[in-house]
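Box S2. Input/output pair 1.
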Amino acid sequence: MGFFSRLFKFKEQDPDSQETTWAYEDNASELVLDPEYAATLMTEFDIDAAILSHEDLQLRLQRLVEGRADEVLDPVVVGQHETCALGQWLCGAGRETLGKYPAFDMLVARHKYFHLQAAQMAQLHQSGEYEKALQLYHGGYRHASNQVTLLLKELRRSLGK
């Protein structure tokens, strides 16, 4: 059972209504999206591409702090969570389509935190504090990155892809 489905259960208010309400009494049930709605979401945003892009940044930062790259990453740019493809989707179409689900806000928060950690790591590296940057990578940054990836994979699973 997936992460989102362990947290949320939806019940129809009226069989003819598309509105849903939370049912807190059973947190172990499935989050089920209408198949047409899920298909529409999958055509609007490529979750696999978002995962790959996210993992690419994570690997670039890993190589940087491990001293295996000459790349210079601007902490200000890296810290802007709303400018990457995932961030643009989360702030725009994703919010419009999935913003009603509390798990969506969790994904947004984890994504923001990931970028804050990445910016701090890039800043430490740029300042010559290589050991601190490496410690941050192995601490909060890697954990935040893994959470974003897991939430995206769970979203993909919940959408039936």
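Box S3. Input/output pair 2.
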Amino acid sequence: MQFIMRTFLAVLLFVSLGSCAHDGTVYFLVSEITPTHNDSYILPLTDPDDIAQARALITDPNNTTAKIVVASIAPCENCDYPNRDLLNDGRRWSWCITGFQAFAENTIEIYDGWPTFVENDLDGWIENTNGVIGFWAYTVTRELTPFEVFSGHLSDK
């Protein structure tokens, strides 16, 4: 009975969240190129050119040197989606992306870090960087479904 109830709730969640794709938002997993910290975050994109570039990074990561996500972040009370570490049981971060700026070849050193580091001192990060991230060792590694974003669980692909 518990399995049936979970399945029903998952289907209901997926159907109700399917409308998120209608607003043009496509979600991507951003994680390390070479795992060291073993964490991740979610990048929402709406611009078709940015979405195409993110998909190109997934398809052929060696085709460009502009792999670093440069984005503005803010505490989650301003978030339109749950930012999660999908590599670690979908734990929720207290921050999210509020504005994508660009894919870059490099960033200034103060923007470099990792999601857990930001989480451990969000106020300090925002104060020091004006709320900008540009983690050198991270890039887009997977496109996500709305179900994965909102349930916090990666499906097998």
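Caption for Box S3: DSSP finds five helices and eight strands in the chain. Residues 1 and 17 are 24 Å apart (CA to CA).
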